[in-house]
Amino acid sequence: MLKIKNVSKYYGKTTALGEVSLRIPKGSCYGLVGPNGAGKSTLIKILSSIIHDYTGEAIVDNKALTHEQKGKIGYVPQDICLEEGLSAIGNLYLFGKLYGLNGKKLKLRALEVLKQIDLENRAKDKVSTFSGGMKRRLNIGCSLMHNPDILIMDEPTVGIDPQSRNYIFQMISEIKNDGGTIIYASHYIDEVEVLCDEVAFIDKGEVVENGSVDELLKRYATPSIFMKGNPLTLNDIKQYGDVSAKKGGYMLTTNEPLQVMENIIAHCRNHVIDLERLELVQPRLEDIFFSLTGSELRD
Ligand code: ADP
Q1: I need a surface site. Which of 47, 145, 226, 258 has the fewest CB within 10 A?
Q2: SS3 assignment, position 268
């Protein structure tokens, strides 16, 4: 269990984090979601012991986050941090040594990690010849060398191909199945929705909401219906719920979507309106984030 209590961090007059408190359960994948500048990286750097000058407490397994606890945490930085002139295995050795591994243990662990990141067949090739996705995977591999209990990933899928993205997702579910905890910061909320059990929405240095993904979707998201018809006007449908114009049609939110869909079909039949589309729209975390903060996740 990782606990963050009233953590604040200022850069001059900028509040990067203001009194943030979170509980991250063991064995979960926990998403940190927020737009650029929200404070995700700052929080991650505090948890990874890169930033020390903050106020509040970070607690791992009931002990304050100290140098000794640091070994339990693996950090995958947003910017790829590898030695381009070394091979994949060379980089794994380098990071393993930094974490105190050596000899047979180091070699065995590097082979295990190479398998995990699916780069066994490129083990001896220089990193400078790798694609962006392969570098991302190796970057993750380096952070796994000391077998951390908690893996913190900062935007790990930025600028990669879909195949590498899938490898990363697969790795995450394997780490979770082995009992590991993952903290996953991203502004790609669709990834967080798929991967994470719990999520914290961060905006302007504050946690605006947090909880299980399923529970938040149930609690906040009102079902919507998208419809398009010829000639379907606002007057035809405004009696059934809150309506906004969208993509050449209308989006209507209601707590009784199925009943409303039936009513709209009947209305269109009676008024000789050709109903081209009528769809139930599943609630998304992105909409909840927007309704809570008024901020878009992407620039
Ligand atoms: P995110 O990771 O969500 O994009 P950051 O944690 O990087 O957000 O940034 C949070 C805030 O702190 C932003 O306003 C950013 O400009 C500011 N900030 C981050 N790092 C520094 C720094 N080294 N010096 C000054 N301001 C910083």
Answers
A1: 258
A2: helix
- For ligand 1, the distance from its centroid to the CA atom of residue 53, given in whole angstroms, is 14
- 206 forms beta bridges with 203
The total of other beta-carbon atoms located within 10 Å of residue 234's CB is: 10
222-282: CATH architecture: 2-Layer Sandwich (3.30)
Match 């060379």 to its residue by tokens: 90
Residue 221 confidence (pLDDT) above 80: no
Distance 262 CA to ligand 1 centre (A): 49
- Ligand 1 atom closest to 42 (CA): 6
Instruction: Report the atom number in ligand 1 closest to the C-alpha of 205.
Output: 10
- Superfamily of domain covering 2-218: P-loop containing nucleotide triphosphate hydrolases (3.40.50.300)
| Residues carrying CATH 3.30.70.980, the chain | 222-282
Q: According to CATH, where is 3.40.50.300 located in the chain? A: 2-218
Structure tokens at 159: 């600028």
Label residue 241 by pLDDT band (50, 70, 90).
Answer: confident
Q: How far, in Å, from the CA of 284 to the mean position of ligand 1?
A: 27
